Amino acid sequence: MTTRLDQPREIRRTLVPRPHYDPESFGRLSERIARFLGTARFLVYMTVFVAVWIGWNLAAPAAMRFDPYPFIFLTLMLSLQASYAAPLILLAQNRQDDRDRVQYERDRAGSERSMADTEYLTREIAGLRLALNDVVTRDFLRSELQQILKELDPKDQHSTLS
Predict the structure, then answer these.
(1) 86, part of any domain
(2) Long-range CB pairs of 93-101, under 8 A, 24+ apart, other chains included
(3) Range of the domain at 115
(4) Is residue 141 part of a domain?
(5) Is 107 inside any structural domain?
(6) What is the dihedral of CA 124, 130, 136, 137, to 10 degrees?
(7) Name one Pfam family in it (predicted).
(8) Which of 92, 126, 127, 150 has CB 3.0 to 4.6 Å from 34, enough for a Cys bridge?
């Protein structure tokens, strides 16, 4: 049995209970997040978030600052966000690759069917052409009848003899 990469694996039973999640729902969620991370809106939100964070920690009274310069906690938060964003983006790309692979297989099968149909029709047309070569056409029949009429017409025979 070959495993298809575009199909999810069956859930295996283990002795240690693991949390169960729906891979399809998780995949759709990851695609939505990855799609959001690639928008200008996300960049604007992140820019505003970082600017407010830095502004607050520079301008607020000393007792209200929670991340003084050099903003170590901000760096940690951005690293955490990046560590989650990268696998989510990769998961979304893998799912898109799987969809593309399935679409490619469908396109290839359709192309093969079209090619086979075209070859069949080409053979049929060639067969019809060969069959039509043996059929008398109207123009050929007319010319043959005119030739016979000329041969049977006595006027034409006397003029050709004299």
Answers:
(1) yes
(2) 93/34, 95/27, 95/30, 95/31, 96/31, 98/5, 98/6, 99/6, 101/5, 101/6
(3) 23-161
(4) yes
(5) yes
(6) 60
(7) DUF1003
(8) 92
